[in-house]
Amino acid sequence: MPSPGQNWKTTMSDHDLKQLIEAADQAITAEDFDALMDFYAEDAALVVKPGMVATGKTAIRKAFVAIAAHFKNTMKVRQGRMEVIEGADTALVLMETLLDIDGQPDPIVRRATYVFRKSDAGRWLCAVDNSYGTTLLDG
Question: What is the model's pLDDT at position 14?
Fold first, then answer.
């Protein structure tokens, strides 16, 4: 129970970040990697695969090009459930990420974790992109 005067914020699946992530997913699907980089902080980190992290926009862009090639340029990214927990100009996003790949009957489902922070201009930027979520602990 909250103490008198204490503010409680509930998680919400209709947060501003939902639309932002949808736009980023569309850029990934369209392989518009220049537009995709607008969603990332300059010093962002992307978990490419367990044990491999790309840091900075240049490395992240190269990683997305390689990921697209790995899936023979057929990957389509979409969202499942999402929860956003926000505090102190930082947001943790817990989300089901669904990857549709041509030739595979079912999507690859990942339970992703993302960290966003607000820039000085008030714009959300992705600081940590981890589509593997807590499965990183399994290895």
Answer: 65
